[in-house]
């Protein structure tokens, strides 16, 4: 499922690398994204759901999402009358297949100039070694979509009579009220916690850090902390650390080397994983897996980066997509090939001869495109060369 924008550029490169590593597979292309919203009024066509039901494993590039009104305006003639409302197809996929476990590994690539620059330690000789895996609950919490503006009678009455609401806010007119809920279920919370501990045990991490805010968000974060303590009892060699998300963002910039497995609810997991991604080179390196009981979808953390999508020669970094494909190999029991590819990537980065623009010093300054930056294809070629 290449999707939109740079998803279309990086996914074929990952497939070339998979083939070079000797992974044998048939690829079936799934339609998803903006194009299908505009043409069909549905960015996640039923046929794509069917494909995943049948094949169980997906590689996904990225999609474009736009605000409600803009999305509506881009619908093809004849579709506007149907009153369709756009919703993100990747969020839709996660919900449809209950891909409730999101796994985001972040590890340092030795020799990546960004290791120093991003930490303000450009002239340091000591290279930080980050090796963390973030487990983010992927379907609930603040992104669960249960929210209201100008709420109906039932919700409004429930709020107006809630003792905490009365105490903290008094009475608020209905039309001045917006509410987004943060829903945690025991079932999903237990699943993400267990996935985190199991991963720590399997790969020898010494700690699992629960990154929430239980002292303030007592019911949801509090429940998660209580459950984490119970589950930790089953893992004698693994420590449970409990940090607050705000402090965690400070700690990870100061001493990211200290952390192993991190587990969090949906939003805090989203935030903390972007924080760690920044330390290892940014979105060009951040990979992820969305896993359910039946189906798993592997995707780079980045989006469709529209401003880079229409270059004659594509310049974005394919490593995030290729690393996501490695996670797929792990999932399929082809770990040996994943290791080979990861070693090839590490070599290319360490040599420093082939670097996409984002790996260069001025990356992030939109007015500067570095001279000598490699294209997306050249980066994939360099990795493939190492696999030979
Ligand atoms: P984005 O991740 O697409 O791009 C942000 C910036 O990160 C880019 O402008 C670029 O500077 C950098 N970047 C991203 N991927 C890169 C790569 N592979 N190599 C080098 N640099 C890279 O996020 P943005 O701009 O907020 O969103 C663009 C569109 O993507 C929106 O429509 C958004 O809704 C969608 N999106 C989709 C996601 C998904 O499909 N899972 C996730 C995030 C955003
Ligand atoms: Mg994010």
UniProtKB/TrEMBL annotation:
GO molecular-function term, one example from the UniProt record: magnesium ion binding
Organism, scientific name: Prolixibacter bellariivorans
Full protein name: Isopropylmalate dehydrogenase-like domain-containing protein
Keywords: Oxidoreductase
UniProt keyword annotation of Oxidoreductase present: yes
Biological process, per Gene Ontology: isocitrate metabolic process; tricarboxylic acid cycle
Isopropylmalate dehydrogenase-like domain residues: 1-383
Similarity section: Belongs to the isocitrate and isopropylmalate dehydrogenases family.
